[in-house]
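Recap for those who missed Tuesday's class. We walked through two folding examples back to back. For each one, the amino acid string is listed first and its predicted structure tokens come directly after. Nothing is annotated here on purpose, so try labeling regions yourself before you check the end of the notes.
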Amino acid sequence: MKTIVHKASSRGYANHGWLQATHSFSFANFYDPEKVNFGAIRVLNDDLIAPKMGFGTHPHNNMEIITIPLRGVLKHRDSMHNEWQSVLPGEVQVMSAGTGVEHSEINGSNEDHLSLFQLWIIPNKENVEPRYGQKKFTESDRKNKLQKLVTSIDENDEGSLKIHQDAVVSRIDLDKGKEFDYKLKTMNHGVYMMVISGNLSVEDIKVDTRDAIGIYETNDFKIVANEASEILFIEVPMIQLN
């Protein structure tokens, strides 16, 4: 088993006043040659957006974009839909940019900050027709068990959202002292594990809130929650970027 640990403090950070953005991988003005990607993961941003503020209309193409609100109200609008759509904590949004799409994202609250993760995954098929998906996932369904949020469009998993990549995005909330064995799809996959909150051990490596660990060249690994912990798993093929 091979691992790479990204401590929370090692991430890129930019304070734009209305936006506090933390980057796990090279993005915008943050560049680290050791943090360009993890397999098919290109971006994992941890954003805090001020009330009524957000990102104006901007384009994307040939990227699978996944947004996970943690706190607050996200309002989304894109060139596939004319009206603003709310995405709330507990919900997940996916957008396959494909041949090209424009979208806007704003904090839908006049009072509270919006906290979210946004994830970009490199697709295994380019120039597809753009598509949008959104789904609510209940907290009880990830209590000490794995909850799949996103899987490949080629897989028959009706409970999850779909993207154009052989990937699995999932969450689990572990009680203190609980153990969990994560099993990878294949030896050609790796898992980027973000600790949303808590403290846990992966084999003999300890990770805290907003620390992340990439794990690859293994069939499985064991997690022990040293305290109550929320975890995001992003499993992807370990492709090489040119």
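Example two. Treat it independently of the first, because the proteins are unrelated.
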Amino acid sequence: MAPSLQHAEDFLSFVNASPTPFHAVKSSIDKLEKAGFVQIKERDAWSSTLKPGGKYYLTRNTSSLVAFAIGKQWKHGNPIGMIGAHTDSPCLRIKPVSKRQADGFLQVGVETYGGGIWHTWFDRDLGIAGRVLVKTSDGQFEQKLVKVDRPILRVPTLAIHLERTQDFSFNKETQLFPIAGLVAAELNRQGKSENEITEKTSEEEPFEPLKTPSERHHPYIVEIIAEHAGVSPSEVQDFEMVLYDTQKSVIGGLNNELIFSARLDNLMMSYCSVEGIIKSLTSPSTLDNDPTVRLIGLFDHEEIGSQTAQGADSNLLPAVIRRLSALPPTENNSDKSYERVEVDAATGFEQTLATSFLISADMAHSIHPNYAIKYESSHRPELNKGTVIKINANARYATNSPGIVLLQEVARRARKASTNVNKSSESTGVPLQLFVVRNDSSCGSTIGPMLAAKMGARTLDLGNPQLSMHSIRETGGAHDVEHAVNLFESFFEHFGELESKILID
């Protein structure tokens, strides 16, 4: 019996609203706040804010997010069940000075972000999205999110009549230039002729250390960004904008069994992480007897190595765990179900890491029917057959046998709603798959090994299977969304019980 499409359809809404890491974090926050999570900030003290049974979230750079729920039986040195994913995907980003013009065309300079399959970006309807920093009337600076949901850019291919080589190749610096329109049309919009040139003198405007955004970019693009931010162009101080495919993500396939979408890697795992922790907290009494903290971390910049302040290789996750471990003892809460036990505060952080477990959730490779030879013969994950455990002998993934055993137990206990409308009962268990690469093939990596090395916590790498990873348009299984959500929900519910049963010192 196939799972329902409810989670798949909800995921489509999530990914369609999230063309950038900033938007992905905002979409996640909307879900978390609806489920009762409260915002906290790194710059504030937590000792008087965090309470047993509380649900909280924080952001860094508004492109990375950590959310957690504190069990009422949590104490210094107790375990934290963690799921880590990432919010970024390969894309084209508008350069700091992007204004280009050639042969009657307006063009926009872009730089490549991550390891994208860049030829897939040709001949697509591209919009722009990101964040803009604006100056308010009281002299403050604030961030606003912008999503221009219409095609204004396009990277055109060269006609086959002019280039008949068998292989499509191009120069990323000189031939990956999007066109934004025609010079004549823009001059007509402004009511100017091609001979009209407006010179700007130093007396006209106050001194600026840099050229203004309207000088560095096509003015009309700045106007469009300002309009979507709800401000005037003069209030725009700077922005970080990327290109994205305006074609919506959809459910496809003959039997609605597939998802055709941008950014499956890794917004599907980000979505499933958020949904998993929320579903695990549905019952008001869930945290009453829980000795753990349930935590998700969604990190930016995985596609470029994670070595940034908001990347997984930063101090973000260790700092959150250290602050949780350093919370002072508190009195029993009103229902007397919680009691903070005193331990050596100097080692609480290390004790917690030694008992904790991290699931590194990043999308995996499905078997490709046209390139089956590229896959190891006994490890060929299929779409809609369950989440994939990723293994690599050279530690490109952090998975080992104790982690596999723990995840199997979690999967056995996962709830899976029956699709038979005549039955109200639930079947149990969600499927899992295994993946290793061929010995003669390179292997990607994830945030798993770096966080395992940084924290010393037990770690396992997994992800839902997909095709066309790093393409502008990827393919996944519609039913695997629910598989992963139910797996993550079960992990949070049962980790506290299972972790001590599968502990290898």
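Answers for example two:
The chain has two domains: 6-89+262-329+339-502, 91-245.
Residues 332-342, 417-425 have pLDDT under 50 and may be disordered.
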